[in-house]
UniProtKB/TrEMBL annotation:
Biological function: Part of the ABC transporter complex PotABCD involved in spermidine/putrescine import. Responsible for energy coupling to the transport system.
The keyword Metal-binding is assigned to this record: no
Family: Belongs to the ABC transporter superfamily. Spermidine/putrescine importer (TC 3.A.1.11.1) family.
Taxonomic source organism: Lactiplantibacillus nangangensis
Keywords: ATP-binding, Cell membrane, Membrane, Nucleotide-binding, Translocase, Transport
Name of this protein: Spermidine/putrescine import ATP-binding protein PotA
GO molecular function terms listed in the Swiss-Prot or TrEMBL record: ATP binding
Domain ABC transporter: 9-239
The EC number(s) this enzyme carries: 7.6.2.11
Catalytic activity: ATP + H2O + polyamine-[polyamine-binding protein]Side 1 = ADP + phosphate + polyamineSide 2 + [polyamine-binding protein]Side 1
Gene3D superfamilies hit by this protein: 2.40.50.100, P-loop containing nucleotide triphosphate hydrolases
Keyword Cell membrane listed: yes
Quaternary organization: The complex is composed of two ATP-binding proteins (PotA), two transmembrane proteins (PotB and PotC) and a solute-binding protein (PotD).
Pfam families assigned: ABC_tran, TOBE_2
Amino acid sequence: MSDNTQPIIRLTNICKSYGDQQILKDINLELEAGKFYTLLGPSGCGKTTILRTIAGFTDATAGQVYFDGQVINELPANQRQVNTVFQDYALFPHLNVAENVGFGLKLHKIAKAEIEERVQKALALVQLADFGDREISEISGGQQQRVAIARALVMQPKVLLLDEPLSALDAKLRKDMQYELRDLQQRLGITFLFVTHDQEEALAMSDEIFVMNNGQILQGGTPVDIYDEPINHFVANFIGESNIIPGKMRKDYTVEFVGKTFECADAGMRPNEAVEIVLRPEDLDIVPADQGKLVVTVDSQLFRGNYFEIVAYDNDQNEWLVHSTNPADEGTPIGLTFDPQDIHVMRLHETEAAFDARLEQYEDD
Ligand SMILES: Nc1ncnc2c1ncn2[C@@H]1O[C@H](COP(=O)(O)OP(=O)(O)OP(=O)(O)O)[C@@H](O)[C@H]1O
């Protein structure tokens, strides 16, 4: 019996090694039914290995994989209620579109009439209702991608795993497919676990993101939480553009950087603890130099269409990235202002658990 209160997928203490190389290091994560999750991290950090462990294509060296409360480590891949959309789509070139989509059902010895009905439904879901008779070589890359999704959905999985499914598409089509996939997930109400190394894609599509590096999950949370409250330098740098400046926590709610003290919204560090400050480029406002909280000298700028990206340096030679609707003059000093709540202070070596506990303690103050 399915129990709505427990996660549909749970990984506990998953480790994976190939020889003496540890690829996954103590992975713990929970996926609730009906949500869109993303594993985000640089190439080689272990994202695909997590998908393969859930799908049953790779055995974990240690740890448990749960599906709906049951340990499924020993369950063969074809008996898991999980399907995968692979990066290269892995379509069969000698079968037409409908045959590709119906292939898994045929293997399961489903009756022909039911196969036809389910294939047609799956093709309609991805807007390819009239494409069943086409050869794979006669459809575009974006359409092949939809066939791969239809082929996974036709099996009626409870969880759909998507391994960088949009990486072969051009920028425009990729954006369209982001909307479509998000819409599809919401309409079907099944759990998606999506893999990407593209932070914009992760922020746009996900209910929750797990940021990974080097075989570990560094931080999990909603896109807004992770963008506003990254736990460390890696996450702040990987998610969006950031100014990351060394500083010192003078006391609760007071931080020092570039030789000045500022009011901030962070607390729970030791007095005078060395920290890092995150200020996002879009949270900085340019004012005349004598009115700025900080003074920086403009080094260069690029016009990015809807804003100017300005690179400037302070007296400590920290680089500052500023997004402004107005251009600045290269070589001249400008003032920067920002609100206390736009300053995000990070401890240098804080675990996600310690970060969460600190946030909980000080959040309501
Ligand atoms: N069968 C294998 N044998 C040995 N090493 C492997 C094997 N499969 C994966 N690896 C290694 O495990 C690490 C993680 O690979 P994985 O494919 O999970 O990364 P990823 O984050 O999905 O990367 P990408 O974004 O490039 O697909 C890599 O260093 C890879 O070389």
